[in-house]
Amino acid sequence: MRGTRGPDDDKPARHTSRSRGVAESKLRRDGRHCPVCLKALPRIAGKGLARKCTSCEAQPEPARRCARCHEEAIWETNIKAACQACGNHGSKLRVVAGALTEES
Ligand SMILES: [Zn+2]
Ligand SMILES: [Zn+2]
Known about the structure:
Elements: H1 20-29, E1 43-44, E2 48-49, E3 59-60, E4 74-76, E5 80-83, E6 89-91, H2 92-95
Antiparallel strand pairs: 1-2, 3-4, 4-5, 5-6
Bound molecules: zinc ion (ZN) (2 copies).
C-alpha cells in the first residue's frame, strides 16, 4: 500500500538578522558593554561595572573626543577606539578627533 508522503512543511528556520547593525550600535552605547568589542563589562562588587574591558583591555579616555559626534565618550585600546555616545568605532585614527590631523 502506497501513501507514505513525507511531511511537506520543512520550512527553513528563519533567523532574524535584519537589525543586527542597530543592535550592535545599541550595545556600544548602553554603557554596560565594551564599545570596542561588545563584551559585557564585568561587575565589581560594591562598585558597579568595571571601567575596563577584560576582553580587549579597552578603557575610557576622558580627554579624547569622538571625531564624529565630538563627545568625550571614547574608549580605546592600543590600536582601536570606539565612541560610547554615537557608536563610532574602528582604528584610533578614524575615531579619535585630532589623532589624524595635528591641531595646535
Ligand atoms: Zn572590549
Ligand atoms: Zn561619537
